[in-house]
Amino acid sequence: MKLSILDQSPISANQTAKEALEASLKLAQHGEKYGYSRYWIAEHHDLSGLACPAPEIMLSYIGAQTNTIRIGSGAVLLPYYKPYKVAEAFNMLATLFPDRIDIGLGRAPGGSAEASQALSDHFLKGVWSFPDSINDLLHFLDNDFPEDHPYAKVKAAPIPKQPPHPWLLGTSKKSAILAGEKGISYVFGHFMSDKDGPAIVEQYREVYSKTPHKEKPYVIIAATVFCAETTEKAEEIALSSLIWSIQRERTEGNKGVPSIENAKNTPLSFEEKTKLKAMKEKIIFGNPAEVKQRLDQLQNQYHADELMIVTITYDPSDKYESYRLIAKEYKEL
Fold first, then answer.
1. The pTM is what?
2. Is 290 exposed, middle or buried (0-12, 13-18, 19+ CB in 10 A)?
3. Across 213-290, where does the E strand assignment appear?
4. 332 falls in which pLDDT band (50, 70, 90)?
5. Domains of the chain in sequence order
6. Which ranges in 64-108 belong to alpha helices (H)?
7. Sign of the torsion formed by the C-alpha atoms of 12, 14, 20 and 25
């Protein structure tokens, strides 16, 4: 089973944004050492406690200090941008780091309505035209516009020997159908919504099979996972992330991911305690054997080709250790 990393570049309560971004670099380096297939970093805008609004900048920083692990966006929020500019940026990354670049695409706003307005006057129009934007982007990446197309003579230079590999990220049938129609790989965000997940992924495969494409359908399932030597330790390090989610709903998350001690001492209402219990049931945590069992179940549930793990902890060392233990259990080390 292939394993990968999804990083949201969270800022802990004791960190600066710079330190959080440096921790993201170290995570990619650890992932490479442990045998993970790819490292992706997400795009967010003015969301308290998340440090990366520009994956393409971080990927150049990370690519220069890693050697073999695939690196990519999870995801570029395409409705904000012209496909040509995105193609230029990722073609440049693919030129610098040959056969290592993925370009994950999403249509979510990734921030508040005010941030969306600051980024673009036409975000909703971009969402509506998302399928057409993907078409243009794929043509720019493959350098294969029809001769009569207005962009036929426009190249997204530099042209790499191996173009970036495109992916579509989503949690709905709409995204699955679109990925299948476009003939690109699909990532289902199980950590965001597991509602009808297997049926959505199966819809992707069905649509994909009805149209001839260059490659076979490929599915990654992204899940929230916390692993430690003991189940108790895993639950403890997970608590910081779960309490932080509740704090953000209170609009109190600007102080960053809380320490385990502070998370334990955070007063919760009855409704928040109920929410916390439900959140624990949706994540995967435990000792290495328990985590592998749950991940294997997830893989079998979706018939996934690959699993992508997102882990947010207060102490980066707990995060690195979680990924190490999982890789060791899968004998990736």
1. 0.96
2. middle
3. 219-227, 284-286
4. low
5. 2-233+284-329 (3.20.20.30)
6. 83-96
7. negative
